[in-house]
Write a structure and sequence with these properties.
This protein is an alpha+beta fold and 762 residues long. The chain is built from 23 helices and 19 strands. Strands 11-15-12-16-10-9-18-8-19 form a nine-stranded mixed sheet. A seven-stranded mixed sheet has the order 1-7-2-3-6-4-5. A three-stranded antiparallel sheet has the order 14-13-17, with no helix packed on it. It is elongated and about 110 Å long.
Length: 762
């Protein structure tokens, strides 16, 4: 305890500079703790979403009391957002318990809506067509997964839903039917966030704990020479680092509380939550208040070991020992694992991530990242020694000799940015894997709307939506079921695509033999659809707005051979009918209006939003894709984007703190070199090279190892995309930007003021 109190007295009695460094350590630590609390709270936010969604799910039975309460649930899409309506017909028997968020069940003609849906009804009155009845109130937060949800309870009568309604037994499931993020995907997101945030965070907190390490080590060495014991010297050092960590943890938790209040009200793209969802849990508080000071204690104890055991070497600034080579073993082991998975993909026999292989992938990625961090000082030392021994440039020689003398400083300066680039590759892999799992493999996405639900004006507007490649009409033939058997009816039915050859080309991957103005047969070599139909067979299509009332089309011999994706709407058609074949002002009765766009998630969301603005009450079928899956992609993109922002903040903060601290610590050496004739321009170039060379080398290694780790993840995931070549240019531009920013940030730190007192004092 005496040594601890001595450390506190030295902390507050060693001058303004020492107190400033202490508060800088605390502020830097608070940024790290705030990011740590945010990462630890994200799973709790998602769990709160799913918990409320599960608690409101109707529990039903196929049989119940004769006059029991009936319920029907509809999940549609309004634009790119899910829109859920629950129709309830109250009975005199059975349960009458209200769902969470309501005080009672709605009566016939009563509608209870979510706050966001209430606002939408005023902005888009056409939506009222989906909500038969009068609005009686809003649903409280306990009944909504998140504040932006479109949800409604609609009261009706038993006769309206008797044919499809189920008897209501109560509300509440043990699981959410549509979780915010699927459990398997959430595991990948947690792993990506841990790599994006937690690894750089550990480095950043270590950097903050070692702020002004050289000055403190000389002070500790002096105490050791005065007779203080080894453990006592370490306790003196721990007083400053632990106190700074405790103060930083308290400040960080306060910063997170303010951030949670602001972000929960403003929201993030595709992710909203209530303030209570993001409240600090006891576990999060314990991790921040105990884990961060413990890390500071460990770092402070280790950094003070040399001053306590060999104080003369510290006071006389002896040449430090070369970095250990053991860190390279981790890098070699990790690279060996991820390279093995990549080789299996190259040979055409990709290994699945089932069982032990899943653990090996995670282990390989972690070992590669950790090995990259621990190997950087050794790589910087070897590079600096060889360059300094072979160069004839004074500037380059000064820079490399300083890096050779202090190789450990490299890990504090550049590691945060290097880990950020390494983790960015993994984030790209998670997004690619997520998109492959929730959307079709093909490049096109089809949207189907009932033609009878659209006016001619809406039909024209939908065809002009930005991003829509083509639009067409699918019409089904009419069969008299009373006059033939089901087997004959099936053989006499067909679906026709009303489109031009240009529209067909934009809706499929390839087509051959199309002639405009002619009725033609559609043939897909990879499908047997329509193979039993004989040329000359006639099909009747019913029309509205035509005197004839129908259109008879015979199956021609002329063919259009095409290739479409597995979920294309064209795959269900056997006839290509030109628009000119329809009578004037005629519209098919049993038909769907089909739009085609790119399958890129952002484009799909934009097209859906435009469809919702033009035809808000029309039901949109996403062919091969569901809105919940699209929403999950948005949530995952938001989480990974948030992780990238936090990783960038942590990396930049660690870089600025490290570079500034190193510039301050080296003022005496800079002053000495300046007094013997070095120009200010030379010193700035030296300062820049000391940072840029090891940073550039580390970033190059991060790109290579990150892409290998990402490829091993994609290969074991079993998706169609195994090599993310498209992500390399973006990553290269980011690397160049990081190096340029680091160079620009290093130039002002050499200093212009010459103070010989620094040499005399030292």
């Amino acid at each position: 305890m005496t040594e601890f109190l001595l450390g506190l007295r030295l902390l507050f009695g060693a001058g303004r500079g020492n107190r400033t460094r202490f508060f800088l350590m605390a502020v830097g630590g608070s940024i790290g703790v705030c990011c740590l609390a945010l990462v630890l709270t994200i799973p709790a936010i998602l769990h709160a979403h799913d918990g409320r969604a599960a608690a409101r799910q109707p529990v039903t039975a196929s049989k119940g009391p004769a006059d029991g309460t009936l319920v029907v649930q509809r999940s549609d899409a309004y634009g790119s957002r899910p829109f859920t309506r629950v129709f309830i017909a109250r009975g005199t028997e059975g349960t009458r318990s209200a769902p969470p968020g309501l005080t009672r069940l709605p009566g016939p003609g009563e509608v209870f809506v979510s706050p966001r849906l209430h606002d939408l009804l005023h902005a888009a009155p056409a939506v009222k067509g989906l909500l038969p009845g009068r609005e009686k109130g809003t649903i409280a937060g306990a009944g909504l997964a998140h504040p932006d949800e479109l949800y409604a309870y609609i009261g009706t009568t038993r006769d309206r839903i008797a044919h499809e309604g189920r008897t209501l037994k109560g509300f509440g499931y043990d699981y959410a039917p549509s979780p915010a993020v699927e459990p398997s995907t959430l595991t990948d997101v947690r792993f990506a966030l841990a790599t994006l945030v937690l690894l750089p965070l550990g480095i950043f907190l270590t950097v903050c704990a070692r702020l002004s390490a050289a000055s403190r080590m000389r002070r500790l060495a002096a105490l050791r020479l005065l007779g203080l014991s080894v453990k006592g010297t370490q306790r003196v050092n721990a007083a400053e680092t632990v106190m700074a960590a405790v103060l930083g943890a308290l400040l960080g938790l306060g910063e997170y509380w303010v951030l949670n209040q602001v972000m929960s009200r403003t929201g993030l793209p595709a992710l909203r939550w209530y303030p209570d969802d993001g409240a600090l849990s006891a576990t999060t508080v314990a991790v921040c208040l105990i884990g961060c000071p413990a890390l500071a204690w460990f770092v402070g104890r280790k950094s003070a070991r040399e001053a306590a055991t060999n104080p003369l070497a510290v006071r006389r600034t002896a040449l430090p020992r070369p970095p250990s080579k053991w860190g390279g073993l981790l890098l070699i082991a990790g690279m060996g694992i991820v390279s093995g998975f990549c080789v299996s993909g190259v040979l055409g026999h990709p290994v699945s991530s089932v069982g032990v292989n899943g653990l090996l992938v995670v282990g390989g990625v972690v070992l590669t990242g950790a090995g990259l961090v621990l190997t950087l000082p050794l790589i910087s030392y070897v590079l600096a020694r060889r360059v300094a021994g072979s160069t004839e440039s004074l500037t380059l020689s000064l820079a490399m000799r300083r890096n050779e003398a202090e190789p450990g400083s490299t890990i504090r300066v550049v590691t945060g940015l290097v880990l950020l680039v390494y983790a960015a590759s993994l984030a790209q892999g998670v997004l690619i894997q997520m998109e492959q799992a929730t959307r079709p493999d093909g490049p096109l996405q089809d949207y189907s709307l009932s033609l009878s639900a659209l006016t001619p004006g809406q039909q024209r507007e939908l065809g002009d939506v930005a991003g829509v490649r083509a639009h067409a009409i699918l019409m089904n033939s009419w069969v008299d079921l009373d006059s033939m058997s089901p087997k004959d009816a099936l053989a006499s039915s067909a679906t026709a695509l009303i489109a031009t050859c240009a529209q067909l080309d934009h809706m499929v991957e390839r087509s051959k033999g199309c002639v405009d103005g002619k009725v033609m047969r559609l043939v897909d070599p990879n499908s047997s659809l329509g193979s039993e139909l004989k040329p000359g067979a006639s099909f009747r299509f019913r029309l509205s707005g035509s005197k004839a009332g129908h259109l008879d089309i015979g199956l021609p011999t002329r063919q259009v051979v095409y290739s479409a994706s597995s979920v294309s709407t064209v795959g269900g058609a056997v006839l290509l009918v030109p628009p000119s074949a329809l009578p004037a002002h005629a519209r098919p009765r049993d038909a769907e209006f089909v739009l085609t766009s790119s399958s890129e998630p952002g484009q799909v969301r934009k097209v859906l939003d435009d469809i919702g603005a033009i035809a808000p009450i029309a039901e949109v079928e996403l062919v091969g894709l569901n809105v919940q899956g699209l929403e999950q992609i948005s949530v995952v993109e938001t989480l990974l984007g948030l992780g990238m922002i936090m990783g960038l903040v942590i990396g930049v903060a660690a870089f600025l703190v490290s570079v500034t601290d190193r510039a301050v610590e080296r003022r005496a050496q800079v002053t000495a070199v300046t007094l013997i004739g070095a120009r200010a321009r030379t010193m700035r170039a030296v300062q820049c090279l000391q940072v840029v060379l090891p940073l550039g080398l580390g970033l190059a290694l991060a790109v290579v190892t990150g892409k290998l780790a990402e490829s091993s993840y994609l290969i074991t995931g079993g998706g169609a995309i195994r090599w993310d070549v498209a992500g390399i240019p973006l990553l290269s531009v980011a690397v160049a930007g990081v190096v340029a920013a680091a160079a620009a940030g290093s130039l002002p730190l050499a200093g212009r003021r010459i103070d010989p007192e620094l040499i005399r004092r030292d």
